[in-house]
Write a structure and sequence with these properties.
The protein has 16 helices and six strands. A two-stranded antiparallel ribbon has the order 1-6. It has a two-stranded antiparallel ribbon with strand order 2-3.
């Protein structure tokens, strides 16, 4: 069995507690870029391919013919069209792009799924997860063990959107990777505050903020970045200037509202492909611009042709 997710979290806490005092712990979660390639359609559509499919999938179609590329794209379009009305909206396209970028997360969940789905019914109940994860507690775990289980159960219930105490694949993914889901933001903030709020007053003050990042040792001179973080706390983190961070301020800190790359790419793909300018994309419109979405083998279309990584 793979290392249990919760115990991994606990192990990370231990690592943080014993890490080098000059190393900075990072709690801020930023969305990864859609592609490392430059977004310049005049030079090719590599960025769009990786944004639309994910890097790994984009490469898998390098040697496909245009006909096969279009066929597979047609299958993808049907998956994107969530309400099956025959059109792909900008919202549906954004959701697909975000899902494509999370494929590494889904692969991680797939690897763990068989360990927890004990009865092989395609679902994971809280009982299954609890029994597998906490089946053999160490005798000296004491409070930590019970606390960790209660914390896991609370997160499981938050991920379990229909409240049946059974998680499907998407709900279990939200449980293991809550930072990736909007409806799990509150639990991410709550768990973070519980980790850092040492005096239990429900806030994060400056000393707690710095103490979470930096293990101070009297004989060592404080690194420059610690002074910078003190300024960050006073100038930007503590927005109402009361000397501490509440839940909203903590949310803005660890889950900042970054530029939405997926939304921007969805708008770009719709703009470039929407021939009748109705704001939606038909399957025909997408296939007509298939090389923008997925490409195919390098073929001779004159100066406009570039060789690109495809689905």
């Amino acid at each position: 069995m793979e290392i249990r997710p919760l115990l991994m979290c606990f192990a990370l806490c231990v690592v943080y507690a014993t890490s080098k005092p000059t190393e900075k712990k990072e709690r801020i979660h930023h969305d990864a870029p859609l592609s490392s390639r430059e977004h310049d359609d005049a030079q090719g559509f590599d960025y769009d391919h990786e944004a639309f499919l994910g890097q790994k999938e984009a490469k898998s179609f390098d040697d496909l013919s245009p006909e096969e590329s279009k066929r597979r794209l047609g299958v993808i379009v049907e998956k994107i069209d969530g309400d099956s009305d025959g059109f792909v909206t900008e919202v549906e396209l954004r959701a697909w792009i975000k899902k494509s970028q999370k494929k590494y997360i889904y692969e991680n969940v797939d690897r763990q799924w068989k360990d927890f789905d004990v009865n092989n019914d395609g679902m994971i109940s809280w009982e299954e997860y609890r029994n597998v994860t906490y089946d053999d507690p160490e005798p000296d775990d004491g409070y930590n063990y019970q606390h960790m289980m209660a914390r896991d159960e609370r997160r499981f219930k938050m991920a379990d959107q229909n409240g049946d105490q059974i998680a499907n694949k998407e709900e279990f993914t939200a449980f293991l990777h809550p930072e990736e889901y909007d409806h799990m933001k509150d639990i991410v903030v709550l768990e973070t505050m519980e980790d850092i709020d040492k005096n239990g007053d429900g806030f994060i003050d400056l000393n707690e903020y710095i103490g979470d990042m930096y293990n101070h040792e009297d004989e060592m001179e404080e690194p420059d970045w610690v002074a910078t973080e003190r300024e960050q706390f006073s100038e930007f983190r503590d927005k109402n200037k009361d000397g501490k961070m509440d839940r909203e301020e903590t949310l803005d800190w660890i889950l900042p509202s970054d530029y939405d790359h997926a939304e921007a790419e969805a708008k770009h793909l719709v703009y470039e492909s929407d021939l009748n300018k109705d704001g939606n994309l038909s399957k025909e419109e997408i296939l007509n611009k298939y090389d923008l979405f997925v490409g195919s083998q390098a073929t001779d279309f004159g100066e406009a042709l570039v060789r690109h990584d495809e689905f």
